[in-house]
Amino acid sequence: MVLVLNGVLQDECPMDTHSLFVQHPVYRETATQFLSIPTKTVGAPGLLYVCQRELAAVAPHDKNVNIIGSDDATTCVIVVVRHSGSGAVALAHLDGNGTDEAVSTMVARVQELAFGYPEGRIELQLIGGFKDTQGYAEDLFSNIMQSFHKHPLEIDLTQACVGELNTILRGDINWPIIYGIGVNVKTGEIFPATFPDKGPDLQLRMARHFTGGHQ
């Protein structure tokens, strides 16, 4: 009983995106607002890029990082966990491998970075995934929600731009609207983004997709 939806602690969490949006229409409104933000192209200076099956965490006072982000998400979901008091933020690009481990690690790292700062809430934002014909993104959304719901801390879902809300019909085929996001670690601003430079050793980092490695 730890997920907080629209300010209310939940006994049970919605198991699919449609149920979430019907029961809590505020998430439809916030997703619509997010989709209206122009996509930014982010360069390499000050960027911490997160590949699929990776996660990273950073604090606002980090001198080397201004933006943390990820893109190339189709059926994947980009997960952002942020401490409202300190501004410490973690971001992961999840595809269904090691979801429970990633959730626990993200929350733990944000708590560590927030130690000694004013009290605040752990806020959760989910962006990505679309209404694919195989239902991969929907299954992933359900797994992520369950992982956060069984975490002992209260976690406040503030954004869910996922599933049908992140889907556009082109011809007879569904496509994602947003493929990537960036987070300004100094201000907490989150925005649609694309990243031409994805950081060092990209081929080595992506090799985990073929070896079964987790984050």
Automatic annotation (TrEMBL):
Keywords carried by this UniProt record: Hydrolase
Entry keyword annotation includes Cell membrane: no
InterPro entries: NTAN1
Keyword Hydrolase: yes
GO molecular function terms noted in the UniProt entry: protein-N-terminal asparagine amidohydrolase activity
GO cellular component: nucleus
One of the GO BP terms on file: ubiquitin-dependent protein catabolic process
PANTHER family, alphabetized: N-TERMINAL ASPARAGINE AMIDOHYDROLASE (PTHR12498), PROTEIN N-TERMINAL ASPARAGINE AMIDOHYDROLASE (PTHR12498:SF0)
Name under which the protein is recorded: Protein N-terminal asparagine amidohydrolase
Species classification: Eukaryota, Metazoa, Ecdysozoa, Arthropoda, Hexapoda
